[in-house]
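Quick one: structure for this chain?
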Amino acid sequence: MSLPSLRLKANADRRLRAGHLWVYSNEVDVAATPLQGLKAGQQAILEAANGKALGVVAMSPNNLICARLLSRDVKLALDKSLLVHRLNVALSLRERLFDKPCYRLVYGDSDLLPGLVVDRFFDILVVQLASATMEAHKDEVIAALVQVLKPSGILFKNDSAARDAEGLERYVDTVYGEVPDWVALEENGVKFEAPVREGQKTGWFYDHRMNRARLAPYVKGKRVLDLFSYIGGWGVQAGAFGASEVFCVDASAFALDGVERNAALNGISEKVTCIEGDVFEALRELKAAEERFDVIIADPPAFIKRKKDLKNGEAAYRRLNEQAMRMLNKDGILVSASCSMHLPEDDLNNILLTSARHLDRNLQLLERGGQGPDHPVHPAIGETRYIKSITCRLLPNS
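Got it. Here's what it folds into:
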């Protein structure tokens, strides 16, 4: 296969030689290799300014990140063979880490497969193709997944906004075998079913697995409040870990149906109460009713999706955590999480401190957590690290 060239400006190769995988459009020598001469989804040979080949890239010529490195070996373009190899490398890590085949199998750039996400639910795979290159090779993706994992079903959950920037249509489709609406998984010894077709993202969020496991010593015999509960990832595990009562709050009736379904799966339905509605309104109503909790989990959706949302997003995190702190008993535990890539962990730390001092309470930071190792961080790409979780203890100011 003969591939076109993408030539960089002088010294623009330094960042890539140092380990980065992305090429920005302003780094391209467009006089030598015009970007408009390349198509989204096409592969190209990346060249330094002196013409030396640096590897094979996947093209997105209309975007700021106009190319992503697929391989540093120019002989290894994206095809079924490379996909099989990268899948086996990814699989070897996950099989070392987890005793059940329930995890994120492929995490995009971090697994050297930019634009591809694969979540595994035993023998069901849910796949997201976020780049035109992966979309163009979707048949090879399916074939490679079948060869490596022999699944009973593969669902393409291609309905994310990331596809819009690539000029791709959104769709959800079963592309291999059969995929039920709800699929089984197990996390930290707790059983769940996830709505892979109608749910958020791939239906489940494996990224907080390790942080949820750390709930166990804090919740036994305690009264727990799970805010933005979705289908009960935190709350149902708290109940399974021995909490006396669990209240799950979410605006989605569909999500709370999932909480009840998963509570029943684990025989803890009598412990779990669902509250449907806006989380901030629910917090006000619970406070007015003089409800108090020993442990509160605040794991909201991303309040800061873009850098320009930073100020308003930080205010939302402050409001949420301060309201949650008001609901804690005097020796209460708050697990405060953020999936906003643009919110640094130190900023979340400062939000918690400021909120505690505003309430005239003392704060102890007990544990810090990030995304699980099935979401490995690429050391040159800070954007691959997005999960923050801080477990803290709120004490009287005395």
